[in-house]
Write a structure and sequence with these properties.
six-stranded parallel sheet; Rossmann fold; alpha/beta; four-stranded antiparallel sheet; 13 strands; homotetramer
Chain lengths: 458, 458, 458, 458
């Protein structure tokens, strides 16, 4: 079994590898290949990972690669986790909309839009190579904004792909924990789009426990900081549990205000954290102090999410650390491989083509819903009637996504402008134009598709 | 033929009566009854109107009434044009959202919401009387916000009702004028909701002239100031002609900025204008100087719209005056009576139950579409596929309308809060709560239905 | 104003011309051109028509033509009423299905299917010429099966076309007569497909008179023999008025039995009647006895429909004669020209693209619904929710139509077989195969498109 | 774990018990209760079953019961397999439509309709008791017509219910066998209604093997006699695999002809077979020769399906025997218990509320689709777009089902008549009336709900 990580030089790779080691009995990897376009980062992270694997008794072989064709050849699974333009671009993504009073965030709103414009062409280029060299491989996409990237890969290529996001899966785990039930005994009816989903039924042994969750919401959110930004009165009124990212919609102006009041955006923090992390780790690696490098890595990563969302939701509400023991993305990633590889049927919340379960959307629109996953790949489960109160948001954001994917491929300025205009957090042609024009200037190095015909000067 | 105007003491009544006189050959009214709950205004306006009718040779009889049952008895047509809470409430409607950076406008956004909460219970009370006393009468609703009021009357009563708004009809007239074609020879494909509609085809002799209109947009908008706030590049990209009120959506933050930069909101201007108008006219009436009263009225009304929208769209763009010669509401009102009374088939843009023409909405949702109107009342015409790019707005605003009507009737705080939350110009629970709570305090005298169970203090 | 009749040599042409004369004040035709591919019939009918027009004071000029390009050049309106394969083919159309116990009828079921296969390629050839030579002309299609032909012309050409059938219009006229109201004061909610429609509301002055019609159904159907084959108990249960052709569905086995019990099918009668008519008329024409020819024509046509439907609905129920005074097709045809030419807005039941009014069908499926007709051409009116009890029939027949049109163009045997299989009156692959194979042999001269790849021998 | 079989005196009960014994390691039943209203049959079958269980080492306890409340109390699972009116009624069900040239078959068409009218009131009575006494029990419905019974129980009660039919599951098993793949490795996209379903994708390791199945159809159907009645050319054209019961639709007149040519209907055969079986078994039981009774039972049941469908599909095509080793219903029944009881996730084809996966049907219409089944009960999987060619049949049959359930409950004659009228195999009001009237006379003892207000004499 061969697993390839595209973007293997990323700082989260050691966490992923740690997951591979922990899950090794259930998901038996033989060869792990790390591919990256940045040889320097690849070398540092590669060394770190090799040491980690060796330390744990070398359950599998680790290789690094800078040739994609070779890297994906014969792979059974391919993870993709790239960041076009690097952390520095994220800072730009976030700062520009904030200038105009609009949410500046990595994946939601204009930030995710800019990221998608940069990332989709690169991901499509990679996918074409996979399609040619190894069409049977399963691609598990972690690259953000996950829904948009998955939509692009689904519509423009024939690779086998599952798009993932850990937020809904974490919700499910936390709900099960709170209800004191095994996660497998909890069936949640989750529907929507990536970072725009809701839970309107929580079935445990044939009984809907959502009303109880709402009654005991304060206790629940105390233990699950990601949800603590929603007050109980709001949840009672909504009568659903929203994905944490819906904070940016339902508390739109507060989110902007909180971020503005922070000294730095999350992106700026990350730039600094990663810079510091990489330089320290690299230093150790060069000195051959691999264990020390690993200790530093582990310590710095665990401190990292202490501040997660605290500057966006306006307070020291978050207090979750990412450790080598936590699940999150890594657990979800392993779970997917296990289901497909060993036909272990699971119900996971994934990004997949709609195929009719959200009846007002198109058959091939990518949605985020509870799916059955097994050897045959993911199939969405029926979600029933979608409440009228969220239809507007779903329609607007899905149209934003369709147009964004289209614009990212075509480099058509008008389409890009329309995409931002219909996004509910922009909801304005004039705002969209200002933000888009700023992005086209700032990110011009990463948006070659917009070179000609751009309407910036119009 | 008897026509009753509910809200007959309003300042626009003489304009309407002038329309009746001008159209007298085509729409032969015998008795005109002005009903109002404010005896003072009713007396002033009643005197003015009587003088006007007498001067024109008394084509019909004029009466005033303060008893609604009597007023509507035997009426063939009933116009409704009331303003619960008066002009002063409008100022409140507009100022509160502006405080939070959200559009403050008479009908669109939170302003229209507050107006609807005050007005729907009163309109329903009136409609119940009409339903009992004179169920065969046709009610032509001018009361704003027209779409919401029509939705409430349609869903909660069995009266025969047509909701009207002059904006789309004016668009059609201006388009015909610009294309140099008789209005009757131009068929526009108009669809959406009140103050949220688009034109995506302009058929003249079997040919779609929309592309030409877009090419020549600058010339068109020069002659039609209501549209001049949309730049040509925007129209080219949208590839539809939007209702002028869509300025508040597509240029959301500019609209707010323009209004904030004005020394006074439109509502404040109107309060002052109407106060001055009424006091001068009343003065003359009391002195028996009826012709002078009429002259003052005519002069002051014609100056009025010189400033229309200029403070909202950010400049002295508007320069249209309302005169005794203009059509607008009055022409549309006459046109409706003529169609129904004399079976003169016309295609008019009206607010009516959907009946399947906007396939993603419900059968009984009130929509604003081109209708066939004749003796049998209005029937919507097919509009074809609604472009994806506007589905999100339509869904959001329609759900806002459904919830607002429901909340206005029930006095349910949570429903009202949800209504504002899903409105695209609010798009935030936290904003919605601030605005709603302010309204409930400021308008408490006019919102008795919210007395108990209000969540203000929650 | 020039009007061209394609298929001008048909026996009904003089009736049509008589309509033109009677309506001359309202629809001012200058030139009438009769085009036909059969020079003999064209000469006989041409002479008859010329005499008729001359006798009435020559209100317009009559020409005959055998060159289509010339005939359609400069025409404002083009009627199409052709019969590929002639009356004799109709006999085959009807007899083959009867052999297998399936309805054998001119337009409904396999008979209409065979007719469509022969006719669509010829009509498309004609339409292509019109498209090139005179794209602005309005084509009014009378050629049967009208719904299928209109669907084919709509989908494969860009001509301006209205498909008509007199059955629903006759229903409306009879209903109005029965209710003692001017036809214009009756608005019927008619929906479905050609020869497969229902009326579920009859609005007169805002009141639904359908319940009354159902209560008094026996009296109604006594005066309107086309409906007399439906017993009152059936109508009560259906709670709608069905198009007369629905007799073939709702009384399926009785219709087949009645036809089988007749000594001859309707088609055989027509062959004989037309043969006799033409020979007698031709005889007179050759002798120059034009008035005598006209007298014979008039007498024989008026006797004709005495037997209409009597052999299909099982009794001497029908007793309507077609005279020079009756309206039917001719009145409807004139009405359409008048609406378009003089912008006289009417509500007519026409075959037009759906455009969303039957929400479960596709946008471009041709449906038969009440339309607004004026200078801009027809636009369907909203019909509201379609009752569940007829959804199955509508879906099956529409899919039959889509596949039939496709097969008529492609000559694909499998598609043709599938078309007949899904027709509710066949509802069997094995039956469909037998019937289709017989048709392909019997009609081989008129179905060149099926020459190769036919699965007959499979 | 307690399992109750309602209708435990039926001849298939020993087969089911044998399944319980074979699956005992996977589904550990402690108590088995057989309930029946016929004490005689219950005694015979009860003795047979007791002997069988004892012989296999008494893995669980067997009881018989004639009090339903007691029988269902504390049960974890309840099977229902009743036949109101007994085998003799089935003969009537089948013979009446055949008289009129319409399919006479146990579950499809008028036969299933009559069975539903008799059975639904009894099943609802039972379900109400379960709802009150033991609402947590899972009811697995085998009672035919399974789709209609499940629809009735879903709409009129709140019990937990899964409706099953072994036909689609058998298809899946046969397909897997033919493709030489483990059944679990084959994912079929099955959609439709009970006895009206299609397979349009057969996924094996991410590849669609349907095209291959169609190419090799003759070999497939040779090994699976249920499908052998469909010729390959038909399957090629349909490009889907139909449920075997679709033979009655796609080969409508051949099915009727075959049955008519048989000396006896399937129902008549069954009456005789069961009579003989029961009398021989009873004889042995009374003499205490239990092993002999079991031997006779086993021999006679295994011979039984030798003739299955042979008289309906017109030939000795079927040659499958039901033995104690075969799976069919019994395997499916065990599979369902195992999934729910031990949370063993499976994809099974079940009858469940639609919940949006067939987008043109209603949310609560019962459909037959591939579901995920686990502890949480069944959830339909997305099936994607339903081909247009089958929409008509699905709409017609579903409406027939809705009306039949309604009529069975209300005893409304008109509703019952309408139900039969819309069924595609009747497709005629006149035929429906004759068939219904005959049923109401013949089955009057079992249709008390139709006693008054019946329109028979109308």
């Amino acid at each position: 079994m061969k697993l390839t990580i595209i973007g293997g030089g990323g700082v989260r790779t050691p966490l992923m590898v740690n997951g591979l080691i922990r899950w090794h009995e259930r998901v038996n990897v033989d060869r792990l290949v790390l591919f990256d376009t940045d040889p320097e980062k690849l070398s540092v992270i590669g060394n770190l990972v090799s040491h980690l694997v060796q330390k744990k008794g070398s359950p599998f072989q680790v290789e690094v690669a800078t040739d994609l064709t070779e890297a994906v050849q014969d792979a059974d699974f391919i993870y993709t986790a790239i960041r076009v333009g690097g952390d520095v671009s994220r800072v730009v993504d976030e700062k520009i909309p904030l200038k105009y009073g609009v949410l500046g965030q990595e994946t939601t709103g204009p930030g995710g839009f800019a990221m998608a414009l940069r990332t989709i062409p690169v991901m499509l280029e990679y996918a074409k190579i996979i399609e040619e060299v190894n069409p049977d491989a399963w691609v598990v996409n972690f690259t953000n904004p996950s829904g948009l990237i998955t939509e692009a890969l689904q519509k423009y290529t024939n690779i086998k792909i599952v798009g993932i996001c850990d937020a809904p899966s974490s919700m499910k785990l936390e709900i099960a924990k709170f209800l004191n039930e095994p996660a497998d005994d909890v069936h949640i009816n989750y529907f929507g789009l990536n970072h725009l989903g809701w839970i309107n039924r929580i079935m445990v042994k044939g009984e809907d426990r959502l009303p109880e969750m709402i009654d005991r919401y304060d206790a629940f959110s105390q233990g699950f900081p990601h949800m603590s930004s929603f007050p109980k009165t709001f949840i009672q009124q909504l009568h659903m549990l929203p994905n944490e990212y819906l904070y940016y919609y339902y508390f739109r102006e507060e989110a902007v205000q909180n971020i503005r009041q922070s000294s730095r955006t999350r992106g700026e923090q990350i730039v600094e954290l990663n810079r510091s992390l990489l330089s320290q780790v690299e230093d150790c690696v060069q000195k051959g102090q691999l264990q020390k490098a690993l200790d530093i890595y582990e310590k710095m990563m665990s401190e990292r999410t202490r501040s997660y969302m605290s500057n966006e939701t306006g307070g020291a509400k978050g207090d979750q650390s990412v450790t080598f023991e936590s699940e999150g993305y890594e657990g979800l990633a392993m779970s997917i491989i296990e289901s497909i590889l060993h036909n272990r049927r699971k119900t996971l919340i994934l990004n997949v083509p709609n195929q009719g379960v959200l009846s007002s959307l198109k058959e091939d629109d990518v949605v985020e819903v509870t799916c059955l996953l097994d050897r045959h790949g993911p199939v969405p489960l029926a979600v029933g009637h979608i409440p009228d109160r969220v239809q507007g948001l779903i329609h607007s954001v899905k149209e934003y996504e369709r147009l964004t994917v289209s614009a990212a491929v075509s480099g058509n300025y008008e389409q890009a402008l329309l995409a931002l205009t219909v996004h509910p957090l922009v909801c304005s042609y004039s705002l969209a134009k200002k933000i888009l024009d700023d992005y086209l200037i700032e990110h011009r190095a990463f948006l070659p598709q917009f070179k000609k015909g751009s309407g910036i000067h119009a």
